[in-house]
Amino acid sequence: MGGGVRNALLGLPATDLDIASAALPGEVLALPLPGTAKEINRRLGTLEITLDGVRMEHTTFRRESYGPGGGHAPERVEIGVSMEEDARRRDFSVNALYMDVLSGEILDPTGRGLADLQARVLRTTTPDPAEILRDDGLRLLRLARFYGQLGFRVDAALVREARRQKGLIRDVSRERIAGEMEKILLCDVKYDKVSRVHPVLRALELLHGTGVLEELLPELRAAEGLPQKKKYHKYTVLQHILHTVACAPPELVLRLAALFHDVGKPEAVDRNGRMLGHDRIGARIARERLPEWGFSREITEDVAVLVELHMYDLAGEARESRLRRKCQEVGYRRFLQLAALREADVWGSGWETGPVATAERFRRVAAQMQAEGVPMSLRDLAVSGRDLMEELGIPPGPEVGRILRQLLVLCANKPSQNTRERLLHAASPRRGAMSEKQT
Ligand SMILES: Nc1ccn([C@@H]2O[C@H](COP(=O)(O)OP(=O)(O)OP(=O)(O)O)[C@@H](O)[C@H]2O)c(=O)n1
């Protein structure tokens, strides 16, 4: 049932295999299945079944009722109801189609699923969209994802209701927001041929159209009417941000970085209309919002650093030696991500699609350094702190670290220096100078 039947009928990639039946969990567990079955959620009666290495979930038909402020677990769960009841607790009619596993017959208990699938429209399972959204605010995000990934239109009453109920998103738990945002930002991975507009752009445009995006990221409100003030931009800041996300490669950190890269612009505009330091402001906003959405500290930091650096060497004027040092400082992974973000930023401005000179330069520099085996961290150096103390008699303390860091920087442009002998030599006569100057 659910997404599996929907996608099979549309000829789209398979989703998880979800089975629903009137059988109670105990009855399924007692069956002599040629595989394994275990309970994964007692309250909802969900079982995980593995047959021939294929994992599926079984749920018993159930009815759910929610208290005020949906988005948490249902207040009451009643299992062992009819398929029609089971269908009515679901979100969209095309997600409430069932297939009889024995006969293969498609069952449409809401009476609107097949017609909506044919008409390629997203509607709720019951005629009252307000109730369906109130039961679970996450459905505001799911709506945008299905709109993007299926290429369907959305019933006008549902869009209106989503706009009215946009605030429900704030009741949804962080983990679920992060999980669904990830699905939205990567919804083109399996579904790239559904419409002429990029699935992620479609999804984000609906999130913006309903105001849900601004509920999650209030800083975007001021970006809507803000022109870019540059001749090479044809969009407003908001449109540019959404296009940049869709132009970024399908990698969560990159898509998030694209979403935040210019979010600091409205705050950065001074009285004379000049924009100052929007990269740092954007990074601060990312550090604030991403944990609120439930993203991990690692993802937040990766995104914030990319946002902070996205203007680095915009004019492509930095000497190669400086680029090499920057690459060493941030590491290959981030440096290459930065190249990809730079590219998405240019393409997301709506004029160009071809090669982006600074991105290509970043990639060439990184490839060259990799080929030369440039040490990228203190661990890659041919000497250790102990070597410096024992061979050069440097007393333990912060100076040892400082010298090591300077040796590392030295090797960014002269990797042939990375031998024990040469590094000890480099550290020895210049010790005085090295300890005075910070790297
Ligand atoms: N907030 C939710 C989550 C899920 N469902 C129902 O549970 C089914 C399975 O959920 P899920 O696996 O999350 O979605 P799929 O529709 O299967 O889509 P996908 O696998 O692409 O996420 C959905 O089809 C829908 O009927 C729902 O009504 N409301």
From TrEMBL:
Keywords, sorted A to Z: ATP-binding, Magnesium, Metal-binding, Nucleotide-binding, Nucleotidyltransferase, RNA-binding, Transferase, tRNA processing
Gene Ontology MF terms in the entry: ATP binding; metal ion binding; nucleotidyltransferase activity; RNA binding
Entries under InterPro entries matching the protein: CCA-adding_enz_C (IPR032810), HDIG_dom (IPR006675), NT_sf (IPR043519), PolA_pol_head_dom (IPR002646), tRNA_CCA-adding_enzyme (IPR050124)
Poly A polymerase head domain location: 2-123
GO biological process, one term: tRNA processing
Protein origin, superkingdom: Bacteria
Pfam family, one: PolyA_pol
Domain CCA-adding enzyme C-terminal per the UniProt entry, residue ranges: 286-426
Residue segments, region Disordered: 420-439
Similarity comment text for this entry: Belongs to the tRNA nucleotidyltransferase/poly(A) polymerase family.
The protein, known as: CCA tRNA nucleotidyltransferase
Species this chain originates from: Guopingia tenuis
